[in-house]
Amino acid sequence: MQQPTDAQFQYLTGQSRLSFAALLPHFDILSADVASTGMLDIRYGDGHRECFDFFPARGRPRATLLFFHAGYWQSRDKSTFRFIAPAFTRRGLHVALVNYPLCPQVSLGELVDATRRGVVAVHRHVLARGQGDLPLLASGHSAGGHIAVELALTDKLADDDTQPSPRIHGVLAISGVYDLAPLVDTTLNRALGLDAESARRHSPVGRVGAVAAPALFAVGGAETRAFLVQTQRMHAAWQDAGHPSTQLMVDGADHLTVLEDLVASDSSLHGAVLDWVDQAVAQAQVQTA
Q1: Which pLDDT tens digit goes with each residue over 112-132?
Q2: What is the pLDDT of residue 4?
Q3: Which end of the chain is less congested by CB atoms within 10 angstroms, N or C?
C-alpha cells in the first residue's frame, strides 16, 4: 500500500490544477445550453438524488450510453456533465446521465446498489419508447468509471423477476479508480468509511469474472502515476479474464480536460470511443441473434 502522504498526493493534491476553478463552471455553462434537448430528472427511486437525465438519439438509435459522474462518490452532480450528450446523440446513441446518492449519507455498497436500480429504470424507459431492447453501454469518469465497471461485473441488475434483467454490453471507464485500498489512508476516506476489507470488496480490479463486456479504459497523460497505474491494472485484469479491452492514454490531458477530449470529434479519445461503440454493439447483436 502507498504511504499516506503519497496517496494523498496521488489521488488529491497531485491531481488538482488551477484551471479546474474555471473549467467546472465552464462545463456548467455548456451543460445549461443543452439541457432543453433532454428529459431531466426522471425518477428511479425515492432518494432525492435517484434520478436521471435522458437525451434521445438523433435518428434511429443504436444503443443507450449511460454516464456516471465524478466526485469520489461524495460530490458533484450529473447536471455539470450534460454537455457530453450531443457528441453521442448525433451518433445514434441515447444518452442517460444517472445521478446517485452520495457518501457518507449512504455506504459505498448502497451507492452502487442505487446505480443498478438506475440502469434498470433507464432500460425500461427506453423499452417504453418502443425502440426495442437496445444494448446498454456503461460509461463514467473517475468515481463514475469505477461504477461503470461494477455494473458490468453484475450478472443480475434487477432486484425482482417480474421483468427480464438488463445487462451491460460495453464499458467505457475514464480516469477511474478500480483498487480502492490506497484511498483508506487519505482524507477522502472520511466520507467513504472504508477499511481494508471493504476497500477490497469494492475493488473491481480483483474480481473480473465471466460476466464482462468489451471495455475501453482511458486516462489523461498528465494525471498522476497512481491514475495511470489504476488504468493499466484494470485493462490487464480485463484482458487476463479473456475479455476484449483497449487502453488509451490521452496525451496532455489532465483529470478534467480529458472530458473535453471525450467530446472533441478530432481527438484520439473520441475516435476510440466510437470504435468501442461499434465493437460493443456488434457483439451484443451476435449474442442476441
Answers
A1: 999 999 999 999 999 999 999
A2: 45
A3: C
pLDDT reported for residue 165: 82
What are the start-end ranges of the E strands in 161-225? 168-174, 215-220
Distance, in Å, from the CA atom of 156 to the CA atom of 251, rounded to the nearest integer, reads 37
| Amino acid at the residue 273 | V
Q: Which residues of the chain have pLDDT under 70?
A: 1-5, 161-163, 289
**Residue 55: all three cell numbers together:** 437525451
* Helices and strands (H, E) in the chain, number of each type: 10, 8
Phi, psi of 171 (to 5 degrees): -130, 125
SS3 175: coil
pTM above 0.70, yes or no: yes
Alpha-carbon distances of 22 from 19, 28, 203, 257, 281, rounded to whole Å: 6, 10, 32, 12, 36
Residue 97 and residue 78 in contact, taking contact as beta carbons nearer than 8 Å: yes
Q: What is the DSSP letter of 165?
A: P
Q: Cα(76)–Cα(4) distance, rounded to whole angstroms?
A: 25
How many angstroms separate the CA atoms of 227 and 174, rounded?
Answer: 10
Q: What is the mean pLDDT of the chain?
A: 96
Nearest CA among 273, 157, 260, 227 for reference residue 2: 227
Alpha carbons 228 and 86: distance in angstroms, whole number:
28
Which CATH superfamily does the domain covering 4-288 fall into? Alpha/Beta hydrolase fold, catalytic domain (3.40.50.1820)
Cα–Cα–Cα angle for 83, 89, 93, rounded to 5 degrees: 125
pLDDT score for 1: 43
